[in-house]
Amino acid sequence: MIVIPVRNEEARLPGGLALLAGRLHACGLEDYQVIVADNGSSDATAALARACPDPRVSYLRASEQGDKGAAIAAGWAAATAAVTVLAYCDVDMATDPEALVRGYRLLQANSADVVVGSRWHPEAQVSGRRVRRAILSGGLSWFWRLLPAGVIRDPGCGLKLLRRSTWASLAPVPGGFAYGAEVVERAARRGARVTTIPVVWADDDAGRIRLGRAAGDYVRAWWRLLARR
Protein backbone atom coordinates (compact mmCIF):
# COMPACT_ATOMS: atom_id res chain seq x y z
CA MET A 1 0.00 0.00 0.00
CA ILE A 2 1.39 3.36 -1.09
CA VAL A 3 0.62 6.62 0.66
CA ILE A 4 1.02 9.89 -1.22
CA PRO A 5 1.01 12.81 1.25
CA VAL A 6 -0.40 15.97 -0.33
CA ARG A 7 -1.26 19.56 0.49
CA ASN A 8 -2.71 21.89 -2.15
CA GLU A 9 -1.52 19.69 -5.02
CA GLU A 10 -4.33 20.20 -7.54
CA ALA A 11 -1.78 21.00 -10.25
CA ARG A 12 0.35 17.90 -9.77
CA LEU A 13 -1.93 15.19 -8.36
CA PRO A 14 -3.61 13.96 -11.58
CA GLY A 15 -0.30 13.70 -13.41
CA GLY A 16 1.40 12.09 -10.43
CA LEU A 17 -1.26 9.41 -10.09
CA ALA A 18 -1.18 8.70 -13.83
CA LEU A 19 2.60 8.41 -13.84
CA LEU A 20 2.57 6.12 -10.81
CA ALA A 21 -0.01 3.79 -12.35
CA GLY A 22 1.82 3.73 -15.66
CA ARG A 23 5.21 2.92 -14.18
CA LEU A 24 3.84 0.22 -11.86
CA HIS A 25 1.97 -1.33 -14.79
CA ALA A 26 5.12 -1.26 -16.92
CA CYS A 27 6.95 -3.10 -14.14
CA GLY A 28 4.25 -5.76 -13.89
CA LEU A 29 2.73 -4.66 -10.58
CA GLU A 30 -1.06 -4.41 -10.62
CA ASP A 31 -2.14 -5.51 -7.13
CA TYR A 32 -1.68 -2.45 -4.93
CA GLN A 33 -3.57 0.28 -3.10
CA VAL A 34 -2.89 4.02 -3.09
CA ILE A 35 -4.10 6.40 -0.39
CA VAL A 36 -3.91 10.10 -1.13
CA ALA A 37 -3.38 11.43 2.40
CA ASP A 38 -4.34 15.09 2.55
CA ASN A 39 -2.66 17.23 5.20
CA GLY A 40 -4.73 20.38 5.00
CA SER A 41 -5.49 21.22 1.36
CA SER A 42 -7.71 24.19 0.62
CA ASP A 43 -7.77 23.81 -3.17
CA ALA A 44 -9.29 21.13 -5.44
CA THR A 45 -6.93 18.37 -4.29
CA ALA A 46 -9.67 16.45 -2.46
CA ALA A 47 -12.11 16.63 -5.38
CA LEU A 48 -9.48 15.45 -7.84
CA ALA A 49 -8.43 12.54 -5.63
CA ARG A 50 -12.03 11.43 -5.11
CA ALA A 51 -12.69 11.70 -8.85
CA CYS A 52 -9.80 9.41 -9.79
CA PRO A 53 -11.33 6.57 -11.84
CA ASP A 54 -8.79 3.99 -10.63
CA PRO A 55 -10.52 1.89 -7.91
CA ARG A 56 -7.14 1.27 -6.28
CA VAL A 57 -6.89 4.96 -5.35
CA SER A 58 -8.68 6.34 -2.29
CA TYR A 59 -8.68 9.67 -0.48
CA LEU A 60 -8.09 10.35 3.22
CA ARG A 61 -8.35 13.69 4.98
CA ALA A 62 -5.45 12.94 7.29
CA SER A 63 -4.50 16.22 8.94
CA GLU A 64 -5.37 19.89 9.00
CA GLN A 65 -1.92 20.99 10.12
CA GLY A 66 0.13 20.65 6.95
CA ASP A 67 2.09 17.84 8.60
CA LYS A 68 3.58 15.43 6.06
CA GLY A 69 4.57 12.83 8.64
CA ALA A 70 1.14 12.81 10.25
CA ALA A 71 -0.41 12.27 6.82
CA ILE A 72 1.88 9.31 6.10
CA ALA A 73 1.14 7.74 9.49
CA ALA A 74 -2.61 8.22 9.07
CA GLY A 75 -2.49 6.66 5.63
CA TRP A 76 -0.56 3.65 6.85
CA ALA A 77 -2.93 3.22 9.77
CA ALA A 78 -5.87 3.20 7.34
CA ALA A 79 -4.50 0.26 5.34
CA THR A 80 -6.81 -2.72 5.03
CA ALA A 81 -6.10 -5.87 7.02
CA ALA A 82 -4.70 -7.67 3.98
CA VAL A 83 -1.88 -5.16 3.48
CA THR A 84 1.55 -6.44 4.54
CA VAL A 85 3.84 -3.80 2.98
CA LEU A 86 3.61 -0.06 3.58
CA ALA A 87 5.24 2.59 1.41
CA TYR A 88 5.13 6.26 0.59
CA CYS A 89 6.27 8.44 -2.26
CA ASP A 90 5.98 12.11 -3.15
CA VAL A 91 3.25 13.39 -5.46
CA ASP A 92 5.73 14.89 -7.93
CA MET A 93 7.13 11.40 -8.66
CA ALA A 94 10.59 12.97 -8.75
CA THR A 95 11.80 9.52 -7.76
CA ASP A 96 10.93 7.05 -10.51
CA PRO A 97 8.18 4.78 -9.09
CA GLU A 98 10.01 1.80 -10.56
CA ALA A 99 12.02 1.82 -7.33
CA LEU A 100 8.82 0.99 -5.44
CA VAL A 101 8.59 -2.26 -7.37
CA ARG A 102 12.22 -3.18 -6.67
CA GLY A 103 11.72 -2.42 -3.01
CA TYR A 104 8.49 -4.39 -2.82
CA ARG A 105 10.11 -7.44 -4.39
CA LEU A 106 12.97 -7.32 -1.89
CA LEU A 107 10.45 -7.34 0.94
CA GLN A 108 8.42 -10.11 -0.65
CA ALA A 109 11.57 -12.20 -1.06
CA ASN A 110 12.33 -11.69 2.65
CA SER A 111 15.61 -10.00 1.76
CA ALA A 112 14.85 -6.95 3.91
CA ASP A 113 12.40 -5.54 6.43
CA VAL A 114 12.84 -1.93 5.31
CA VAL A 115 13.86 -0.57 1.91
CA VAL A 116 14.95 3.04 1.41
CA GLY A 117 15.77 4.89 -1.78
CA SER A 118 18.96 6.93 -2.02
CA ARG A 119 20.13 9.60 -4.44
CA TRP A 120 23.64 9.18 -2.99
CA HIS A 121 23.90 5.51 -3.94
CA PRO A 122 26.75 4.97 -6.45
CA GLU A 123 24.25 3.59 -8.99
CA ALA A 124 21.65 6.34 -8.56
CA GLN A 125 20.81 8.59 -11.51
CA VAL A 126 20.18 12.18 -10.43
CA SER A 127 19.40 15.09 -12.73
CA GLY A 128 18.56 18.75 -12.23
CA ARG A 129 19.33 18.95 -8.53
CA ARG A 130 19.83 22.58 -7.55
CA VAL A 131 22.90 23.59 -5.56
CA ARG A 132 21.06 24.60 -2.40
CA ARG A 133 19.13 21.35 -2.34
CA ALA A 134 22.27 19.30 -3.00
CA ILE A 135 24.13 20.97 -0.13
CA LEU A 136 21.24 20.39 2.27
CA SER A 137 20.83 16.77 1.17
CA GLY A 138 24.55 16.08 1.49
CA GLY A 139 24.70 17.62 4.94
CA LEU A 140 21.72 15.62 6.17
CA SER A 141 23.23 12.43 4.76
CA TRP A 142 26.47 13.00 6.67
CA PHE A 143 24.77 13.84 9.97
CA TRP A 144 22.32 10.95 9.85
CA ARG A 145 25.11 8.45 9.32
CA LEU A 146 26.44 9.53 12.74
CA LEU A 147 23.36 8.13 14.49
CA PRO A 148 23.65 4.82 16.38
CA ALA A 149 22.12 2.68 13.63
CA GLY A 150 23.55 4.89 10.88
CA VAL A 151 21.51 3.22 8.14
CA ILE A 152 20.10 6.31 6.42
CA ARG A 153 22.19 7.54 3.50
CA ASP A 154 19.55 9.90 2.10
CA PRO A 155 16.99 10.83 4.77
CA GLY A 156 15.21 13.26 2.46
CA CYS A 157 14.57 10.83 -0.39
CA GLY A 158 10.80 10.51 -0.72
CA LEU A 159 10.64 6.76 -1.21
CA LYS A 160 10.56 4.25 1.63
CA LEU A 161 8.93 0.85 2.14
CA LEU A 162 8.67 -1.44 5.15
CA ARG A 163 6.79 -4.38 6.49
CA ARG A 164 3.59 -3.48 8.25
CA SER A 165 4.65 -5.61 11.20
CA THR A 166 7.89 -3.61 11.47
CA TRP A 167 6.02 -0.31 11.63
CA ALA A 168 3.48 -1.69 14.09
CA SER A 169 6.28 -2.74 16.46
CA LEU A 170 7.47 0.86 16.92
CA ALA A 171 6.37 3.40 19.50
CA PRO A 172 4.57 6.39 17.96
CA VAL A 173 6.93 8.59 15.94
CA PRO A 174 6.48 12.39 15.80
CA GLY A 175 5.33 13.79 12.46
CA GLY A 176 7.06 16.30 10.25
CA PHE A 177 9.19 16.01 7.12
CA ALA A 178 11.59 13.63 8.88
CA TYR A 179 8.91 11.08 9.77
CA GLY A 180 10.00 8.41 7.29
CA ALA A 181 13.69 8.71 8.13
CA GLU A 182 13.00 8.54 11.86
CA VAL A 183 10.85 5.43 11.40
CA VAL A 184 13.71 3.75 9.54
CA GLU A 185 16.33 4.63 12.17
CA ARG A 186 14.10 3.42 15.00
CA ALA A 187 13.27 0.20 13.15
CA ALA A 188 16.96 -0.49 12.53
CA ARG A 189 17.69 -0.12 16.24
CA ARG A 190 15.10 -2.82 16.90
CA GLY A 191 16.87 -5.20 14.55
CA ALA A 192 15.08 -4.55 11.28
CA ARG A 193 17.11 -5.34 8.17
CA VAL A 194 17.45 -2.14 6.15
CA THR A 195 18.42 -2.20 2.47
CA THR A 196 19.30 0.90 0.46
CA ILE A 197 18.55 0.93 -3.26
CA PRO A 198 19.57 3.42 -5.97
CA VAL A 199 16.88 5.58 -7.51
CA VAL A 200 16.37 7.55 -10.68
CA TRP A 201 15.54 11.08 -9.54
CA ALA A 202 14.83 14.36 -11.34
CA ASP A 203 14.28 17.67 -9.57
CA ASP A 204 10.79 19.11 -9.91
CA ASP A 205 10.94 22.85 -10.46
CA ALA A 206 7.27 23.09 -9.49
CA GLY A 207 7.96 21.78 -6.00
CA ARG A 208 7.10 24.10 -3.14
CA ILE A 209 8.91 22.38 -0.30
CA ARG A 210 10.07 24.86 2.30
CA LEU A 211 13.68 23.82 2.73
CA GLY A 212 14.12 25.75 5.96
CA ARG A 213 11.17 24.06 7.65
CA ALA A 214 12.19 20.65 6.30
CA ALA A 215 15.76 21.08 7.54
CA GLY A 216 14.45 22.10 10.96
CA ASP A 217 12.34 18.94 11.18
CA TYR A 218 15.33 16.75 10.29
CA VAL A 219 17.55 18.45 12.85
CA ARG A 220 14.95 18.02 15.60
CA ALA A 221 14.48 14.35 14.66
CA TRP A 222 18.27 13.85 14.68
CA TRP A 223 18.53 15.23 18.21
CA ARG A 224 15.63 13.05 19.38
CA LEU A 225 17.29 9.97 17.97
CA LEU A 226 20.68 10.90 19.39
CA ALA A 227 19.11 11.29 22.83
CA ARG A 228 17.55 7.81 22.54
CA ARG A 229 20.88 5.97 22.27
Question: Any overview of this molecule?
Answer:
By secondary structure, the protein is of the alpha/beta class. Strand 2, helix 2 and strand 3 (57-61) form a beta-alpha-beta unit. Helix 5 runs parallel beside helix 8 (211-227) and helix 7 packs parallel to helix 8. The longest helix has 17 residues, at 211-227. Helices cover 38% and strands 18% of the residues. It has one domain (2-227): Spore Coat Polysaccharide Biosynthesis Protein SpsA, Chain A (Alpha-Beta Complex), CATH 3.90.550.10. The two termini are 31 Å apart. The protein has 8 helices and 9 strands. The strands form 2 sheets. It has a 7-stranded mixed β-sheet, sandwiched between helices.
Q: What is this entry, summarized?
A:
With 229 residues, the chain is α/β, with parallel strands linked by helices. It has one domain (2-227): Alpha-Beta Complex (Spore Coat Polysaccharide Biosynthesis Protein SpsA, Chain A). 38% of the residues lie in helices and 18% in strands.
How large is the count of helical segments? 8
- Name of the CATH architecture: Alpha-Beta Complex
Shape: globular
Number of DSSP-assigned strands: 9
Number of domains as seen in the coordinates: 1
Helix-strand makeup class = alpha/beta
Which CATH C-level class is it?
Alpha Beta
Strand content: 15-25%
Annotated CATH homologous superfamily: Spore Coat Polysaccharide Biosynthesis Protein SpsA, Chain A
What distance lies between the first and last C-alpha atoms, to the nearest angstrom?
Answer: 31 Å
Largest sheet report: 7 strands, mixed
Report the helical percentage: 25-40%
CATH topology: the name is: Spore Coat Polysaccharide Biosynthesis Protein SpsA, Chain A
- Rg over C-alpha atoms, rounded to the nearest angstrom: 16 Å
**Mean of the pLDDT scores?**
93
- Strand ordering within the main sheet: 3-2-1-4-7-5-8
In sequence order, what are the helices and strands, one letter per element?
Answer: EHEHEHEHEEHEHHEEH
Low-confidence segments, given as residue ranges, are: none
